[in-house]
Amino acid sequence: MRELKLHLGCGSVIKTGWVNIDMIRSAPLTEVNGTRFIAYDLRLGLPLDDLSASMIYSSHLFEHLEYKHSVRLLKDCHRVLKPGGVFRISLPDFKRSFEAYVRSDATHFDLLNLGELLPEVEPGTETLVDHINFGVYQHGEHKCLYDEEKIVTLLRHLGYVSVERSLFDPEIDPDDPIRRRHSFYVEAVK
Predict the structure, then answer these.
(1) Contact 73, 163 (CB under 8 A)
(2) Are 171 and 156 in contact (CB under 8 A)?
(3) Does residue 121 belong to any structural domain of this protein?
(4) What total number of domains does the chain contain?
(5) What's the pLDDT at 31?
(6) What is the pLDDT of residues 45-102, one digit of tens each?
(7) Taking a C-beta distance cutoff of 8 angstroms, is the pair 189, 85 a contact?
(8) CATH number for the domain including 65?
């Protein structure tokens, strides 16, 4: 039996060789070289059998869900993972951004183009708080903020035997300079 690895998406990233589940896409892709796509509303949980996956990866999805939907999906991820399976999550590192804001550290935000991200901001009036506004609200798309303490506490509460902050992994995480600077990573083992 083939190892089942799930990628819970939010947007355009497709992981080759994985089963990709995303509620954004309107038309499913055909299976190519073991890469599958399922268009599905992840707020409803996972459309998979218990103990069927060896790994689940999510990058910048959970902040787009209301808290109650996030918890429901996290419970479902635990249900679907096999014993010893790994749940890896990448989330926006708001704490680091807030610390940079408090220090007036504009270099933390230098990879972000405010003109593209927030075209409604009056040219010539851009300040560091505009970066915070974009990160936190992202045009109303972000529904809930997480930090390391919150996601680790939730995952431990759900029964994972090991939950640890992790480093960027080029084998799994998208190698995008903005994501690398503005993300944190956590791995949990069932």
Answers:
(1) no
(2) no
(3) no
(4) 1
(5) 63
(6) 898 999 999 999 999 999 999 999 999 999 999 999 999 999 999 999 999 999 999 9
(7) yes
(8) 3.40.50.150
